[in-house]
Amino acid sequence: MGSKRQFRIWRGDETGGDLKDYTVEVNEGEVVLDIIHRLQATEAPDLACRWNCKAGKCGSCSMEINGKPRLGCMTRMSTFEESETVTVTPLRTFPVIRDLVTDVSFNYEKARETPAFAPPADVAPGDYRMQQVDVERSQEFRKCIECFLCQNVCHVIRDHEENKPAFSGPRFFIRAAELDMHPLDTRTDRKEYAQAEMGLGYCNITKCCTEVCPEHIKITDNGIIPMKERAVDRRYDPLVRLGSKIFRRGETPQNSVTSARAAGPATPSTSAGFHSHAGGSHDSRAEAQAQSGVNWHREVPHPTAPAVDERGKLPLTELTFDRAAAPSPFGDDVSFPLPPEHLNFAHPEQDKH
Amino acid sequence: MTSTATRPRGARARAAIAAKTLRTDRWWFAPLITVVGLTAWVAYATVRVYLHNWYWVEDFHYLTPFYSPCITDRCVEGAAHFGRILPDWWIIPEAAFTLPFLLLFRLTCYYYRKAYYRSFWLSPPACAVPDGHQTYSGETRFPLLGQNLHRYFFYAAVIISLINSWDAVLAFHSPKGFGFGLGNLILIGNVVMLWAYTISCHSCRHIIGGRLKHFSKHPLRYRAWTFVSWLNVRHMQLAWITLGTLALTDFYVMAVAADWIPDLRFIN
Ligand code: SF4
Ligand code: SF4
Ligand code: FES
Ligand code: FES
């Protein structure tokens, strides 16, 4: 049977807010997110909260419950005493939008700065082969649901806002570790990158990220500490450095990521001269096939640049953008339907007519 | 259709939550017992090291790990397995070659770092409890950058563990020939635990196999890595257990050497 329980929920937005008291019915088997939903259905229809799956798999319902970063949908009401007041607040480390909803763009920016998987150039997608033992360590990190609880709890940025530009956070340290341990990744300087650009040295391995991870990823033991040790190999271990000099291992690699960013933040795409498939595959075979039907020599007007923000990047969310709906990667100056002369696809028979 | 609307302000504000932490559990308990435990141990060890006495049981050849290897002029004949190299100035501990390395090994240990950063330095005292400091640069600068030297202290600790093992073996050979008593059991137990702690080190885990990209090409190192990983999960427990066994071993040797208690002998 249901019982009445006390709740304190932070209500407000960036201009200020406060903890508000609520008395809500709680039934057996319910989780904190259920109670938030009941409040929305009854007393507080305008209570803002982000959620999706209610199964601990989408990472949307991150909040702080009695001061601890938790998933609302995975925190059972049975873990609290009947008489206990449950306090629910938004994530502290990120700017608040309203009530329990925060703007987590910080994490998407850091994700975009993290160098992507770099498979060997001569292996086509679909031909990747690897042994289970080799890829096992990376797989642990693939469990991440991007709830950003670890990012939120990490005192490096939680208590020191000024460290945000220099520090990528635990979620991206395990991303770096995942790729560095990946049997098919060819980048060799991920450790240097993690240290120089991601702020690995800021982490003092106090393990709060591991404590809050709802996927129980051993972030510190299996991700951060191995990355620190790998950085030591490269930077502080004279024996290993001597070894790599002698055996010519680990020479400054062609596909190095460190230098790319040292050139400064990416500037707005002034490279009007070429058409880039940003993020798309550049597999030569695939393109060769696609070319039957495409006449690459047609004079095609260059696409206009998409609307970017002051740092030259596509805005991450509609919230931080000045237009309704997501920005168009074709540029917002394009009218639809596209005029036929702006298409670079041409029917092979077309020119015959 | 270019829009001229103004963009939203760059930096939004965090939620204005007045309380520094809203945790309701006893989050202060773990840092508190860490401070109490580590302080008590360091106090005991310091006193013992500067007693310069009761470290060697002549009858059964027990040598406490705090005085091993004994290398000052003060060392009694039987205990000085490695010669008497240093003068007997009181400030020099008997084990002047090993103690500094053991100290640095534990000081740079990933577990102890977590423990003292949280408890002594309050950075942070507990998860989601604010850092006790205004600014923070982590381990990016001197002196904390030096934590990266941990693996060298690990190498030193392996050598020291070998010496401690040798001491434990020698203790079976007392002046009357082979002997076996409770002290031997304690010495052996201590050495086993020291090895477990040393091998479970994160640097060891890295060196033994963690640094490889393709485990499939190094099956033996993979097996070794799997074993070290199994121990590594227990690194915190081993860190505290070895503090306990070290103090216990030392205390037992002191008590027997000072004739407070007799050693319980099983053979000879
Ligand atoms: S272990 Fe490092 S990354 Fe994780 S919360 Fe602590 S300081 Fe942050
Ligand atoms: S590592 Fe864990 S805590 Fe961090 S974002 Fe992923 S699932 Fe969440
Ligand atoms: S709603 Fe998806 S993780 Fe909670
Ligand atoms: S001894 Fe603790 S990590 Fe090396």
Automatic annotation (TrEMBL), chain A:
Protein name, entry field: Succinate dehydrogenase / fumarate reductase iron-sulfur subunit
A GO CC term attached to the entry: plasma membrane
Domain 2Fe-2S ferredoxin-type: 5-92
UniProt keyword terms in alphabetical order: 2Fe-2S, 4Fe-4S, Iron, Iron-sulfur, Metal-binding, Oxidoreductase
Needed cofactors: [4Fe-4S] cluster; [2Fe-2S] cluster; [3Fe-4S] cluster
Xref: Gene3D superfamilies: 3.10.20.30, Alpha-helical ferredoxin
Transmembrane regions: none
Any single Pfam family the record assigns to this protein: Fer2_3
Span list, region Disordered: 250-353
Pathway: Carbohydrate metabolism; tricarboxylic acid cycle
Listed GO MF terms: 2 iron, 2 sulfur cluster binding; 4 iron, 4 sulfur cluster binding; electron transfer activity; metal ion binding; oxidoreductase activity
GO BP: any one term: tricarboxylic acid cycle
Protein family according to the UniProt entry: Belongs to the succinate dehydrogenase/fumarate reductase iron-sulfur protein family.
Keyword hit for Oxidoreductase: yes
UniProtKB/TrEMBL annotation, chain B:
UniProt keywords, alphabetically: Membrane, Transmembrane, Transmembrane helix
Transmembrane residue ranges: 27-47, 90-112, 152-172, 178-197, 238-261
Protein name per Swiss-Prot or TrEMBL: Uncharacterized protein
Species of origin: Micromonospora avicenniae
